[in-house]
Automatic annotation (TrEMBL):
Alphabetized UniProt keyword annotations: Oxidoreductase
Name the UniProt record assigns to this protein: Acyl-CoA dehydrogenase family protein
InterPro entries named in the record: Acyl-CoA_DH_C (IPR013107), Acyl-CoA_Oxase/DH_mid-dom_sf (IPR046373), AcylCo_DH-like_C (IPR036250), AcylCoA_DH/ox_N (IPR013786), AcylCoA_DH/ox_N_sf (IPR037069), AcylCoA_DH/oxidase_NM_dom_sf (IPR009100)
Domain (Acyl-CoA dehydrogenase/oxidase N-terminal) ranges: 25-127
One example of a Gene Ontology biological process annotation: L-leucine catabolic process
Domain Acyl-CoA dehydrogenase C-terminal: from-to ranges: 248-383
UniProt-recorded Gene Ontology molecular function terms: 3-methylbutanoyl-CoA dehydrogenase activity; flavin adenine dinucleotide binding
Length: 408
């Protein structure tokens, strides 16, 4: 790799301007309204979200981060994170799919050599690929066995978000045998690849349409052309993939909180009277209701302010490319961990406590308020938030930084 290529590395530079942000906010809002019209009914039906992803393709959101020279919108990560947040206000499952798609698609940059990235981008843009994943790092059961000039893939991988509906799946697996024994490779296969078995076993409380079931691999052929590259755990630039993942989570939880507040407001305003012990004529005019709502709105606004700062900061650090240092990467990761803490707690709390002001009628099946709590409660268990608190605390007290992983 040339010195210029090492320094460059990132195709994303500068910051999102008002024109870019306003345009894609409007696009995402229109998509959110479309999805929100029947989000609860689709959640109950629990069918694979092929139609929903087809709608996203039509909006252009799928190619949002693809560099313009390769056929995409050439937008920034701040814009992408906001799009995820906006979709999460009405449909958490599809917001998760879009968030993971952005991260998975970006592995083109994080793992492939700069000279090889263009063809990957162009194929993805032209096919409007949605990228699923099969990389769960706490379920390391996949093995690549050398076979001729390629490999054979075997094993089971759970929590493979988007795998059952995406056009392609990004996979991480360890090579066993041969000259690359022990190396962890990132590679891409199409969903219909022979030997790939989609188990369709995702049956959880929330995020029901996130297509996060297990995938079993039976001697799946992996050719050299499928390989993006080797995963290097200590490379400051490529490991920015983890702060990106966690930042997407923070925006997702924020969006769910905002959606729960918006739906709660509708329900409160629709209540014609007030509690019989209240002196107020309606629930919306009851000071106790106003106090609870005011607290939840203020806390959500604080999370939004932090997320907005970090979304822009991520673009700035990513734009450094090969010049980003381990110290810069660590500083960003700690800030994002802080967002993970507060967005998780506020998201879960808002989605829960909004019931205190909407009343018993809002718990009726069909109202749909439960969707927000079920979604944020389910996804917030992705990795324990207490360990994020430890990261932030250890860094504040001792300057310690956690070892780099797909979680830190």
């Amino acid at each position: 790799m040339t010195e210029h290529a090492v320094v460059e590395r990132s195709p994303w530079h500068g910051a999102a301007d008002a024109t870019e942000l306003d345009h894609w906010r409007a696009v995402a809002q229109a998509a959110a309204e479309h999805l929100g019209a029947d989000a609860w009914e689709r959640d109950r039906a629990n069918e694979q979200p092929f139609a929903e992803l087809e709608h996203l393709r039509g909006t252009g959101l799928v190619n949002l981060l693809v560099p313009a020279e390769h056929g995409g919108a050439g937008a920034h990560w701040q814009t992408a994170f906001e799009a995820v947040r906006i979709l999460a206000r009405t449909d958490g499952s599809i917001a998760q799919l879009l968030a993971y798609h952005y991260i998975n698609q970006a592995t083109i940059v994080f793992y492939a050599e700069p000279a090889d990235q263009g063809p990957w981008w162009r194929r993805s843009a032209e096919g409007q690929w949605v990228w699923g994943d099969s990389v769960n790092p706490v379920d390391p059961t996949l093995e690549l066995t050398p076979d001729g000039d390629g490999y054979r893939l075997n094993g089971l991988k759970r929590f493979s978000t988007g795998s059952s509906v995406g056009d392609v799946i990004i996979i991480n697996a360890t090579v066993r045998g041969g000259d690359q024994d022990g190396a962890v490779l990132a590679f891409v296969v199409e969903r219909e690849r022979e030997g790939l078995e989609l188990l369709d076993d995702w049956d959880f409380l929330g995020q029901r349409l996130s297509a996060s079931g297990s995938v079993r691999y039976h001697d799946v052929r992996v050719d050299p052309a499928d390989v993006l590259g080797e995963i290097e755990d200590e490379d400051a630039f490529s490991t920015l993939v983890t702060p990106a993942i966690q930042l997407a989570f923070g925006n997702f939880y924020l969006g769910v909180a905002q959606g729960a507040l918006a739906r709660g407001r509708e329900l409160v305003l629709a209540r014609p009277r007030s509690w019989f012990l209240s002196a107020a004529p309606t629930y919306a005019e009851d000071h106790l209701v106003q106090r609870t709502v005011g607290e939840l709105v203020a806390r959500t606004a604080a999370v939004e302010a932090l997320a907005d700062v970090l979304n822009a900061e991520f673009d700035a650090v990513l734009g450094l490319g090969g010049q980003v240092t381990a110290e810069q990467r660590a500083a960003l990761a700690i800030k994002v961990a802080g967002l993970k803490v507060v967005s998780t707690e506020v998201g879960v709390d808002v989605a829960n406590r909004i019931y205190e002001v909407t009343g018993s009628s809002s718990a009726r099946s069909g109202v749909g308020l439960d969707l927000f709590w079920r979604n944020v409660r389910t996804h917030s268990l992705h990795d324990p938030v207490d360990y994020k608190k430890l990261e932030v605390g250890a860094h504040f007290l001792l300057g310690q930084v956690q070892p780099i992983s797909l979680y830190t």
